[in-house]
Structure formats: C-alpha cells, structure tokens
Amino acid sequence: MDAAQARAWVAAIAASVTEHAAELGDLDAAIGDGDHGVNLRRGFDAAVAALATFEADTAGAVLTKTGTTLVSKVGGASGPLYGSMFRALGKALPSDDASFADGLQAGLDAIVRLGKASPGDKTMVDALTPAVAAYAASGPDAAAEAARAGAAATIPLQARKGRASYLGERSTGHQDPGATSTALIFAALASVSG
Ligand code: ADP
Ligand code: MG
Questions:
Q1: What pLDDT tens digit does each residue of the chain (194 aa) get?
Q2: Is 48 helix (H, G, I), strand (E, B) or coil?
Q3: Counting CB atoms within 10 angstroms of each CB, which of 113, 178, 185, 187 has the fewest?
Q4: Domain interval for residue 183
Q5: CA atoms of 31 and 84, how far apart (whole Å)
Q6: Count of other CB atoms within 10 angstroms of residue 142
C-alpha cells in the first residue's frame, strides 16, 4: 500500500462511518451507551482533517498519524483500541512494500494487548480476527466478507468485555457495534484495493 491508497482508505472509512453512524449508534444503544457512531465519526473526520495538512511519503506514516488522531479525539473504548490498531499497522509499514497482512496482524495484536478480549467475547476482535486471517490467505475482498460474517456471528454471543458485559445475558441477541464498525473498515479497505 502507498500513501495515496492509505489516505483513500481513511477517507473511505470516514465516509462509511458517517453513512452508518445512526446504525452504529442504535447497535450501541441496545447493549452500551449509544455513542459508537458519534465516536467513530468524530475520530475519522478528525483523521481526514489531520491528514489534509500532513505530508507523508509512506502508507505507514499516514496510518500512524490516523491512529494517533483516533487516540486523541475519540472518547470511549473504541478510540484507544482502533487508535492502537492503526498505530501498530502504520509502524509495521516502514516502506510501502512491507507486508500489509503482517501489519494487520500487528494491529490485531495491539488491540488484544490493550483490551484483553478473546474471540467469542463479543467485541471488535470477533470481526478482526477472521478478517486478518482471510486477508493473509486471500486478500481484501475475502477479509471484508470475513469481517462481515464475524460481526454477524456476534449476535447470539454474551458480551464478556467492555460496557456490554455489564448486561450479562441481556447482551445476547444484538450485533456488537465494534465488530460492525470493523466490518465497515474492511469493506472500505476492499473498496480502495485493486
Ligand atoms: P464505549 O464502550 O466506551 O462507549 P464505544 O461505544 O465507542 O466505546 O465502543 C464499543 C465497542 O468497543 C464494543 O462494541 C466492542 O466491540 C469494543 N470493545 C469494548 N471493550 C473492548 C475490549 N476490551 N477489547 C476489544 N474491544 C472492545
Ligand atoms: Mg459506546
């Protein structure tokens, strides 16, 4: 990935979370506090704005800047989590021909290090884990489909991490908002890859 593609990806994510902000908010209202759409919209809009005045030669620099902006602009659990993911991904791409699949794995590892969630805990990790594996095996379209399926598979799960875990059994029957936004992030990646 080069810097222009990375910028296009972040812009595509910003457009997608804006388009789906109400849906993400409704999902979070069902099992959390309803702010996930607002949080991500604020964060990715801030990232696009920061990148507009940021000179970068590599995708890694663009994605590291994105992560730093998310950490500083997004309240709630998802800001530090996605921020760490983008920072780790960016750091793993010192040159444009570094392995993007390895970078995604580093991003997933950063989220797990920070949030301590395992697959099955009903979090973004449930979409991210299969997406990262599918990307390594088959590329961006397969990753987008794996993230979508991983998010859908959170519906029957009981949350064991984050705000939704306070609901206990009442968290079942709803799709996790963070897994849903992860699916949007990978759909955006597929849309700019090619
Ligand atoms: P908050 O829960 O602080 O209101 P958001 O609503 O923005 O933050 O994000 C909620 C999402 O964050 C959840 O749907 C879940 O996917 C994710 N999440 C919460 N805690 C964790 C964690 N410990 N590890 C991974 N993901 C988490
Ligand atoms: Mg929330």
A1: 999 999 999 999 999 999 999 999 999 999 999 999 999 999 999 999 999 999 999 999 999 999 999 999 998 899 999 999 999 999 999 999 999 999 999 999 999 999 999 999 999 999 999 999 999 999 999 999 999 999 999 999 999 999 999 999 999 999 999 999 999 999 999 999 97
A2: helix
A3: 113
A4: 3-192
A5: 24
A6: 18
SS3 of 49, please? helix
161: domain CATH number?
Answer: 1.25.40.340
Q: Which residues line ligand 1 (CB under 6 A)?
A: 28, 32-33, 35-36, 39, 76-78, 81, 111, 115-117, 123-125, 161-163, 176-179
Which residue among 123, 155, 181, 185 has the greatest number of ligand 1 atoms within 8 angstroms of its CB, and so is best to mutate?
123
